[in-house]
Design goal:
Strand content: 35-45%
Shape: globular
Oligomer: single chain
Helix content: 10-25%
Number of strands: 10
Distance between the termini: 52 Å
Radius of gyration: 17 Å
Structural class: alpha+beta
Number of domains: 1
Order of helices and strands: HEEEEEEEEEE
Number of helices: 1
Largest sheet: 4 strands, mixed
Strand order of the largest sheet: 6-1-9-10
């Protein structure tokens, strides 16, 4: 019993070290233009209060999280660990620049940030996620027609 609790303490300590190292790391992806989305963010993104038919929705998953919209920081409880977690962002219809972040497994954990500028249609849902189960590239696609 004592051996199990010691092993748990060691495992927790190792996880905390990895998390601390991962929080300060950043890398780029070959999947598209890159940026550091937290470099100049001085305001929080405020989602519009629109009906679903009047807004565009971006659902990030698979370890991808939308971290900024038009230069404004997206806050919230979007959990992100390797290939787990994501968030949902509501947009007004029109052209927006969003930055999506992908957590990449490793020691230390690194992040790939990809910027997309495109037109988002009212009533459409977009998916932001990894290009494959183990891929580090992020793809953004309109999934309304599926």
């Amino acid at each position: 019993m004592r051996r199990i609790s010691t092993m748990c303490c060691v495992a927790i300590a190792a996880m905390l070290v990895l998390l601390a190292e991962g929080c300060s790391s950043s890398s780029s992806s070959a999947g598209g233009p890159t940026t550091n989305p937290t470099a100049d963010l001085n305001k929080d993104y405020v989602a519009p209060k629109l009906a679903p038919k009047e807004s565009a929705i971006v659902k990030a998953s698979g370890g991808v999280k939308v971290v900024s919209v038009d230069g404004a920081r997206v806050s919230g409880s979007g959990i992100q660990m390797a290939n787990y977690g994501g968030n949902t962002v509501v947009l007004t219809p029109g052209t927006h620049r969003i930055v999506a972040r992908r957590a990449v497994s490793g020691t230390p954990i690194t992040y790939n940030d990809v910027s997309y500028e495109q037109k988002f249609e009212a009533g459409h849902t977009y998916s932001a996620g990894p290009d494959s189960a183990f891929g580090s590239r992020i793809k953004l696609e309109d999934v309304t027609a599926r």
